[in-house]
């Protein structure tokens, strides 16, 4: 759970700054999770936007397989982004899309490399609410 929360803390920091290069995401994510977050970072910055506020997480450990190579964990979450908004990078005026869910289920797959757990995949179920 520490790695998962750390990943969200770093996303809040990286996506909240217009001058961030996003490299801090590598401390917590790999594979598709890193790529998807890096793309979001680039798209926001290209549009002159940053994220303001903070999402709320409610992670629950769904499964843990320490015998897998690498060891794997799955976390289910009900992600609440009602206080996390897209905003103009200069004025901080909220620029959220018109249609957006404020709460939705999400699943994170973590893999352990050495002594570090990294988010390898993150799936949002944006057609559902929780």
Automatic annotation (TrEMBL):
It comes from the Bacteria. This is Uncharacterized protein. It comes from Kitasatospora phosalacinea.
């Amino acid at each position: 759970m520490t790695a998962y929360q750390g990943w969200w803390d770093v996303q809040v920091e990286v996506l909240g700054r217009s001058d961030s290069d996003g490299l801090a995401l590598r401390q917590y994510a790999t594979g598709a999770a890193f790529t998807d977050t890096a793309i979001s970072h680039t798209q926001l910055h290209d549009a002159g936007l940053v994220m303001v506020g903070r999402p709320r997480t409610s992670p629950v450990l769904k499964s843990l397989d320490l015998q897998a190579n690498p060891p794997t964990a799955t976390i289910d979450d009900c992600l609440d982004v009602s206080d996390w908004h897209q905003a103009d990078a200069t004025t901080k005026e909220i620029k959220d899309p018109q249609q957006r869910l404020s709460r939705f289920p999400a699943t994170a797959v973590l893999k352990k490399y050495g002594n570090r757990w990294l988010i390898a995949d993150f799936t949002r179920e944006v057609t559902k609410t929780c």
